[in-house]
Structure formats: structure tokens, C-alpha cells
């Protein structure tokens, strides 16, 4: 079996179909909503939370059984019903398209898999065993969650701001690289936001003074 190609896909505005309205479908929809996808659920019944999202206009709900409806408009297709024959029917219809297809509990029918993921704002760390052991992927994710705490969300935003500032204010590429490496020191991760900014400003001032000598 060839390995999967790891990518992060920009889902904003992409049409997605989720067949099923239970807890598994809800988790899939929640993840897709976070990425700005346009989601249609096909299911005669849905969870209270999915119903709430429908009322809020976040998702579209087609209150019907899946019976071979055309899925060609959709970029992402997820089959997450409790009925294997329905999920397989979705697969049969979806494979005629060029869509990404995910069939619950049938990794052999999927042309993409969703990794176990740690999210800290713009920092995204994904772990996958290519379907071999989801339990191991979850174990590794929990370990990463402990290592990369919530403080990394603000820290990554800080790094993004500093990158722009350094590119604007420091002309020497070698010096820029040295600054970027310095900002990776754990002191900047652990420091409160205001102190972190003060430390970075002091670093830039020192560098500018050296450049003027």
C-alpha cells in the first residue's frame, strides 16, 4: 500500500456533503465548519446540535434518506450513517466524481483519511498511522497536547507578527535568521504576552544598534 500524501486543504467555501445525522456526522460537520466549508447534510434525522446549526444557517439540511442522489457538485463527501449498505451506496455514487471520499469504518473505501490533530490557533500538529491504529494516533495526540499547551496559540501569533516586523526592519538576511532562531527560545513561549513583546523589542534594538556600528 502506498503511503498517503500529507496536506492541509483550504476548505473555505468548498461544497461538502455529509450523509448521516448522528454523533459521527456531527463531529465531521463540526471540523468542517471550523474551516469555513459549505455543508449539506442528507439524513431523515439529525442530532440537536446539528439542528441548532441548521437553524442558525450554518449548514443546509436535506431531510431525506440517501437513495443514490447525485453527489457530483460536492468537493468533500462523508458517509457516516449506521447502515453499511447506505454508506457503500454513497461510495458507489461518489467514486464516479473527483471528490474526496470518506466512508465511516471503511478506510479501504476512503481516498483520504483525517489525522488525529492538535490545534493551538494557527499551530496545527497532525498524527496519522495511515489507518493502521487510530488508538495509537490518539495516544500520540494526547502526548502532544500536553507538550504543546494553550500558550502556543498566542506564541505562534507573536511569531507571525515578529516575522513581518523583522522582514521590514532588518535588511541583512543572516541577521534575520539569527533573530528568528532567538525567538524560538522557550523563554518566549513561557513569558506572558506583554513581557514577550518587551523582550522582542529589546532584541531588535540591540540588533539595530550593532548594525549602526
Automatic annotation (TrEMBL):
Signal peptide: none annotated. It comes from the Bacteria. Keywords: NAD, Oxidoreductase, Porphyrin biosynthesis. Residues 120-146 form the Siroheme synthase central domain. One of its GO terms (biological process) is siroheme biosynthetic process. GO terms for molecular function: ferrochelatase activity; precorrin-2 dehydrogenase activity. Pfam families: NAD_binding_7, SirC_C, Sirohm_synth_M. It catalyses: precorrin-2 + NAD(+) = sirohydrochlorin + NADH + 2 H(+). Its EC number is 1.3.1.76. Pathway: Porphyrin-containing compound metabolism; siroheme biosynthesis; sirohydrochlorin from precorrin-2: step 1/1. InterPro entries: Met8-like, NAD(P)-bd_dom_sf, SirC_C, Sirohaem_synthase_central, Sirohaem_synthase_N. It is an enzyme of class 1 (oxidoreductase). NCBIfam families: cysG_Nterm. This is precorrin-2 dehydrogenase. The lineage of its organism: Bacteria, Bacillati, Bacillota, Bacilli, Bacillales.
